Structure formats: structure tokens, C-alpha cells
């Protein structure tokens, strides 16, 4: 569930005061109207064989949905609290012409810091909640990953992530330039984090296809600085990692469209893409002793996550048939959890078409994964190339229970697939955890990719 994320403010008296004073865009004032965009540097490694890896000076850029958005001729905000300024943004094209994205203070305003090969993302920094960044290959291009018959490895420290807060690392079929070439009204491009899409087809992005999402904009009844418009942005996506100290999952989400595609209205509601996807969460699959504090994979200390994209010919020209998961911790390679759920053979401990079909039947979910082409569809996206996103967030829609609690919360907890983690039904309330868990953070490090077996030992 790599859903669209947004900048949020504390939900109580602070927010009310800011809105009443017309200061809902205080985050824009924090960085000014002409803040230079300086991407945090992040060292990554591309490997060619075991122990043979070349360091790359990569960088990250903040998703445009978090950035200050103001008049190009003044500091006046185009978006206040959860509503558009009607003068600057009377229609999509005029808004795109009137409003500009700005550079940001990554550490001071967003709690995003890098050090060598490590990237730390803070949950709450001042008035800002959560963040999402994309890996860059240059100042104007996202890094594109073509991972058929390849593996992707990273280390994650989730020891300061409690229930309700999610660290995500995912691959998205975005345009390398953020859509700048396709949409002339998009002047910012990848440098300013534009062009987001995923299989949720979320309608909360402020811009899609280079124009503002002002038509039919409805402020969220629960999220104080968000809302939804007429348009969403869809594309194939792979959640390589969604997790906190208590639960984790990886998943694949195929779509009927190729590349970033704008949807409209009801079309965005699970019509073009498999929003649920096919997921492997050890706890949900009945293995509750595998991952968590002090367990086989101990989340109180850093762990290395290896994801292998196996093809039918074991070559980069083959078709994806398996997304395999391994862990490395304390010098030991740990195979993925065995399934312990009636109806799913224990031997199916990775994402394959057979596993996904068996899982959907066992938990009683509709099989949109197979209907949209399953791993063959994901194969085409991986061959074309995908962009890497890293994020930290909470969840105003479902309190993150789809990851770490019982979901749906109204279902019988003992029903197959309902229990996804040990967290309580009230553990992920954003209005609570944005205060009580403000200091939560995640550290991603040692990002590597290359042929199968080349990125770990």
C-alpha cells in the first residue's frame, strides 16, 4: 500500500491558530520564496559480481507534494491548510502558471539527513509530518532501476518505529524526468520531485500531468492539510518494504496501463490498478514468531533486506516469475518466513503467481492481481525501468492497521489474513501518535543492486 503521502500539521490547536491567522502555508515561509534546491548526497553501490561493487554519488529529492507552493511573483501560498487559493488557482492551467515549487531545507524543515550511505527520515519535524524522497542519478533525472534477474539490497534500522508509523521503500513506474518532457507546463521536473504515481491512483496529489488538481477538490474530513481532486496518478508499483518494529510486508501491484497515467473520478477507484496487490507479510501468513523485537529477524537492530527478481530464463531478457526475499543479520543469511496458513503450501514463501492465487483464495480476497496480468505485468515495468522512493508516514485512512494490526478492523481477528501484526486497533491514530511518537525515525543505508548473489554475502 504505497499510497500518496502529504505534508501534515499537528491536528489540534496549533493548526487551528495557523488557519485562522491565514498562516496555513507557514512551511513555505520557513524556507522563503527563493530557497535554492540542494539535494542531500547519498552514496549507493552498483555491483557486477560478489564483492565487486562501484560506489555512486547519488542524491535524493523531496516529493513535490510536500514542497512549498506559492505565487511565482510573491510569497503568497497557492494552497492553505487543505484548500486552494481561488484567486491564484481558479482553474488547473491558470494555477500551474501562477504557482511554483520551491527548494527546501531538508534537515531543518523535514528531518531528512544523509551521511555517506545512510539516509535518516524523521517522523515529525516542527510542523511537518512524514516525507517521501526519490533517488536521483543527476540533478534532473531519477535513478532508473531495471531489475530483471537482478537483486536489490538495503539495510534498515526500524528500532525507533512503533505501531502506526511506516517506513517504506518502493519502486514506481514514473518518468525519469518527472514528466517534464511529456507535460510542457511542468517546469520543475524531477529536480523538484514531480511525477509521482502508484497503484493506489490516489487523488490527493496537488498536480498531475503538469496541471493543478483543483477541479472537484474536496478537503479531507480527517486529514487537516489534505484533500482529493478529480484526478489521480496511476502506475505499476512494487513495495519492496513497508514496515515498523512490529510487522513488515513486501508486495506487487500491477496495472492495466503502462507508465504514469492520469485517472479521473471513479476510474481511480481500483479500476486501472490492483491497489491491494499481492503481499507477503510473515505475520499475516501465520508466522508470528519470524519478524519483530527479539525474533528470528530482530527489528531492534539493523537488518539487511535482499529482494531478488527471478526470471524464467535466469537472464535479464526473461520474464519475471518470482520476487524472492532474504534477510541478513549478524552475519547470517535468513530465508524468508514459511507460510502457516490453511490453503497455502508452506513451500510458497515468495511472491509468485501460484502463491498469489493461493493467498487470495485462502484469505477470501478478489484476485485483481491475476486479472491484471500478475508477475508478467510487473516484468514489463521492471524491464522498462522504475524509480526508487523512500518514505516515512502515518495513515489517516486506516491507522496503518493493514500493516501492523487487524484489518479490516470489523472482521473476525481469527479469520485467515485479517491479523497482520500485534498492534492494537487504536495504536495508529495519527492525532495521537504525531504527538506521542513525534521522535520516531528510520534509517535506510547501504543501497546496492546488481546480478543475483552480488550484493550480499
Automatic annotation (TrEMBL):
It comes from the Eukaryota. The keyword Glycoprotein applies. It catalyses: Endohydrolysis of (1->4)-beta-D-glucosidic linkages in cellulose, lichenin and cereal beta-D-glucans. Keywords: Carbohydrate metabolism, Cellulose degradation, Glycoprotein, Glycosidase, Hydrolase, Polysaccharide degradation, Signal. One of its GO terms (molecular function) is cellulase activity. Its EC number is 3.2.1.-. Residues 1-28 form the signal peptide. One of its GO terms (biological process) is cellulose catabolic process. The keyword Lipid metabolism does not apply. InterPro entries: ConA-like_dom_sf, Glyco_hydro_7, Glyco_hydro_7_sf. Pfam families: Glyco_hydro_7. SUPFAM superfamilies: Concanavalin A-like lectins/glucanases. Belongs to the glycosyl hydrolase 7 (cellulase C) family. This is Glucanase.
Amino acid at each position: 500500500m504505497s499510497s500518496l503521502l502529504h505534508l501534515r500539521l499537528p491536528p489540534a490547536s496549533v493548526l487551528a491558530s495557523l488557519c485562522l491567522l491565514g498562516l496555513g502555508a507557514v512551511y513555505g515561509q520557513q524556507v522563503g520564496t527563493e530557497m535554492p534546491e540542494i539535494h542531500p548526497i547519498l552514496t549507493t553501490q552498483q555491483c557486477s559480481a560478489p564483492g565487486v561493487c562501484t560506489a555512486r554519488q547519488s542524491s535524493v529529492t523531496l516529493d513535490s507534494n510536500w514542497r512549498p507552493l506559492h505565487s511565482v511573483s510573491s510569497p503568497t501560498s497557492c494552497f492553505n491548510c487543505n484548500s486552494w487559493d481561488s484567486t491564484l488557482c481558479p482553474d488547473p492551467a491558470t494555477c500551474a502558471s501562477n504557482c511554483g515549487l520551491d527548494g527546501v531545507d531538508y534537515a531543518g524543515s523535514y528531518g531528512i539527513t544523509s551521511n555517506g550511505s545512510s539516509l535518516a527520515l524523521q517522523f515529525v519535524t516542527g510542523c511537518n509530518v512524514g516525507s517521501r524522497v526519490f533517488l536521483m542519478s543527476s540533478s534532473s533525472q531519477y535513478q532508473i532501476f531495471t531489475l530483471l534477474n537482478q537483486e536489490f539490497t538495503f539495510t534498515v534500522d526500524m528500532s525507533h518505529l512503533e505501531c502506526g508509523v511506516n517506513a517504506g521503500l518502493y519502486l514506481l513506474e514514473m518518468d525519469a524526468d518527472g514528466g517534464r518532457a511529456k507535460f510542457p507546463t511542468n517546469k520543475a521536473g524531477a529536480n523538484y520531485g514531480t511525477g509521482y504515481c502508484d497503484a493506489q491512483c490516489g487523488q490527493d496529489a496537488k498536480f498531475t500531468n503538469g496541471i493543478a488538481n483543483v477541479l472537484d477538490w474536496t478537503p479531507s474530513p480527517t486529514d487537516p492539510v489534505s484533500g482529493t481532486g478529480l484526478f489521480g496518478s496511476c502506475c505499476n508499483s512494487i513495495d519492496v518494504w513497508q514496515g515498523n518494529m512490529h510487522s513488515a510486508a513486501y508486495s506487487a501491484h500491477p496495472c492495466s496501463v503502462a507508465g504514469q497515467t492520469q485517472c479521473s473520478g471513479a476510474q481511480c477507484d481500483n479500476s486501472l490498478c490492483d491497489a491491494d496487490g499481492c503481499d507477503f507479510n510473515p505475520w499475516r501468513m501465520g508466522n508470528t514468531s519470524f519478524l519483530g523485537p527479539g525474533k528470528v529477524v530482530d527489528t531492534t537492530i539493523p537488518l539487511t533486506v535482499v529482494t531478488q527478481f527471478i526470471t524464467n530464463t535466469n537472464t535479464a531478457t526473461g520474464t519475471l516469475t518470482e520476487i524472492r526475499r532474504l534477510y541478513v543479520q549478524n552475519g547470517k543469511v535468513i530465508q524468508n518466513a514459511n507460510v502457516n496458513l490453511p490453503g497455502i503450501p508452506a513451500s510458497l514463501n515468495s511472491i509468485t503467481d501460484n502463491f498469489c492465487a493461493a493467498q487470495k483464495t485462502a484469505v477470501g480476497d478478489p484476485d485483481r492481481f491475476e486479472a491484471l496480468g500478475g508477475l508478467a505485468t510487473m516484468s514489463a515495468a521492471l524491464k522498462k525501468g522504475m524509480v526508487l522512493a523512500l518514505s516515512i508516514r502515518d495513515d489517516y485512512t486506516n491507522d496503518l492497521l493493514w500493516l501492523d494490526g487487524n484489518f479490516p478492523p470489523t472482521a473476525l481477528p481469527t479469520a485467515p489474513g485479517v491479523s497482520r501484526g500485534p498492534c492494537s486497533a487504536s495504536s495508529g491514530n495519527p492525532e495521537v501518535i504525531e504527538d506521542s511518537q513525534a521522535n520516531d525515525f528510520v534509517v535506510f543505508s547501504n543501497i546496492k543492486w546488481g546480478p543475483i548473489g552480488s550484493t550480499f554475502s
